[in-house]
## 1
Amino acid sequence: MERVQINQSVPNKYHRPEATYKSCSQSLPLDILWLPRSSFRPAEGELADCVLVVGVSRPKLAAALLSVTLLSLFLTFHVLYDSALYSIQAASMASVAHENRNILQNQQTNTRTINHPMSLRKRLKLPRPPRPVRRLPQALIIGVRKCGTRALLEMLYLHPMVQKASGEVHFFDRDENYALGLDWYRSKMPLSFKGQITIEKSPSYFVTPEVPERVRAMNSSVRLLLIVREPVTRAISDYTQLRSRATPSVPAHALAGLTPHLTPDAAKPFEHLAISPDGSINVAYRPIAISLYHAYMHRWLEVFPREQILVVNGDQLIEDPVPQLRRIEKFLGLEHKIGRKNFYFNETKGFYCLRNDTTDKCLRETKGRKHPRVDPAVVTKLRKFFVQHNQRFYDLVGEDLGWPED
């Protein structure tokens, strides 16, 4: 640092003797120099004798000070940058969560992807938001027909972690569908996010011989839901549905060619179909045959362990849905989310309807049909017939469902 030269030859009222200058000098490590104040500007009033002048004359010390200054500036900038980046990422994640909810609400009719500012993602390298995909089902409602399979599926759909196939796919029980392969089956599944459970239901799975092996070939750890009702009530409900399809506008001879279920017998009274002319139970009649649950259950237990099949009491599901749904949530490994707030009783229909945060929903008019009156003597006879068959079913599943015996 260039030292200031003091002209001592010129007398000045601000000039002080050299002795004063020397008395101001100090030996400090930073080469700090004390100079008389009068050397810089005229003094006004009473002034101190000396002025402090700081300078760095040593190269190593100057480099150290410069490094500390630059490091401080870098750390300050880094903190500000991290704060700004965190704010941008938080706003981005909030946007992604909003997009996810919109996709779930429109998944059946809208296959759009989640939009995101691509330039921002590339610049900041933000994580790619999750996208829904179509997955093979992790759980199946395999039956039984007319025991409440549709109601069960709709109730489970109240859970935010459940996605459902919109209709009965009939992949495993129809050869023409099964021949199309798993890619075709997957295409029929809904969009779902990681962690959600996809469920499909086709009631005829339970009674079709080839289905258990086919299901295991897809996923040996799949969870199976079997919903059953008291056998005689189920048979009458089955008959009621078949009869409703035999409308007067369709001739009886034409019904036989439509499906195996639409036969001229659908117009006969239930008693005439369930009881043979000789007074025995007509086990060949489809509604009666399907109610022999043990005849089909043993096939499933030959392929799947008992703990992978949950038997749901369809009668109790109609009377009080919540306890049965709690069992199912536990079976599927889901957090308990479905409660009494999700149901209200419909006096007109005579059963519970569904409610979520945005809407109320009852099953369509074809559900909950009023059953025709059946001769009580026939009902009693059928129940006595089913006693031994019900017991065989209880033994297979390890549970007594307590169905009436007369």
## 2
Amino acid sequence: KYERFERGNCRISIMRSGEAMEQGLRDCCRSIRIGKILIQSDEETQRAKVYYAKFPPDIYRRKVLLMYPILSTGNTVIEAVKVLVEHGVQPSVTILLSLFSTPHEGAKSIIQEFPEITILTTEVHPVAPTHFGQKYFGTD
């Protein structure tokens, strides 16, 4: 399916690793609206929990570029899409931008939950490089 960039898109970074993808998008799309969402896994239950979400007020009218570089289980992205849906964003206008994805856990679980979402990734591999954020931010 062919997608083209249109005015009125916005990008949502899943903090903290999604912020690593911001500069590249900002370099080519300077006027794009931005939003952020912070989701972390609970230490005891391992469930993803939303701690913070800030979106453009008219996000429900926009196509959303959801940025998250390492897609392993898919739990974080599923929670992010649920929050977007609560704000009126349809999964069919959400494009997940990911650098690395696991085929059986991550992508499959997201598509099962939201079959209308589009996932763009550069590499599908059975093991996701979980050290990406530490390497990028220099905290390893």
